[in-house]
Amino acid sequence: MLNAFRNGKLGKLFQKRPKVNHLWCSDMLLFAFLFVGKSEYCLTCNLEFYNMVSKKSNHSVKRFNTLADVMEASGFPPPKHPLIVLLNGVDKPLKGRAPNKSHVLNYYKIAFKPDAGGELMYGQTKFDFKEGGLFFVAPQQILSSIEENDKEETAEQKILSPQITLLIDPDFLLQYPLAQKIHQYHFFSYATNEALHLSAKEKETILSLFRDIEEELENRIDDMSHNVIISQIELLLNYAQRFYNRQFITRKQNYPSLIDRIDQLLEDYFNSDKVLNAGVPTVNYLADQLHMSASYLSDLLRNLTGQNTQQIIHDKMIYRAKNKLFSTALSISEIAFELGFEQPQSFSRLFKLKTNQSPQQYRAQFH
Hints:
This protein is an alpha+beta fold. 43% of the residues lie in helices and 14% in strands. The chain contains 14 helices and 14 strands. Helix 5 (200-219) packs antiparallel against helix 6 (225-250) and helix 12 (332-338) packs across helix 13 (344-355). The chain is elongated. It comes from Chryseobacterium geocarposphaerae.
């Protein structure tokens, strides 16, 4: 089993993480697909780093270049449309199989699981997926089926657990504004524990949207079909964004200490050797410490405070810089170095951007 991937620091992470039956996530995406049974998950990560690990762990990866390829590997007939397919296992049972090798996604995947069943360990926290949810994953990611007992997946077809899966080739979006706009939906970069959990009424809305897409694909292939399906996909994504915003709001009470934790993490960072060894603190560093994806953390903070993670980091740095400018005789270069900047000019630019004053002008007010 692969436990973790860490951009540029694979060995270091493996040494520090205990060998337990958890799925760890730092600078990767973790996507719970639950293709066949509730013991299966899909681990997604950047292809380059997956290949680095594969050489050491004898894991091979298969690339599906077309939707027809993945449909064939999963035991389904070819799709009616070569660039988009919807599998509806909620309204009617589907018999198929999960690909038994790690594979590369060349398409967008949206999966709706009304009743996932089971729990997932993420970091030190247990997350309940019994109510199911809506999951998103972007192209060029790796999916790896992970069984609880690491058994090889058989080639036999099985009755798939009820879910709806929408697969979209990026080429389907070309010549439409959605091809660019889709990058604004940050939930394609969220991790498994950050999936969208839906209320009963929201489930009805999402199910209705999927069924509309399915009907258009199955029964109405004409000159307007492409335009209509693009509009339906965009409507689905907009509803997902609305429901995520609702999820952020309703879960605010679960994050009363998040700002305090971030403040303490940054305080500890600046008071340690990390600032000398790694430079200025990054969004990915905080997300890793909080066991969240960087995109989810920024969106969560924006809903809680009106600021994203980077802005909060900058405010903390400016606060410390002001204190040093006021209370010490350190030079601008020394202050910049203590804050993790390699070049004092970079520090001065940020300071002026945030305060409308240069560090020298700010200090001159008090001396």
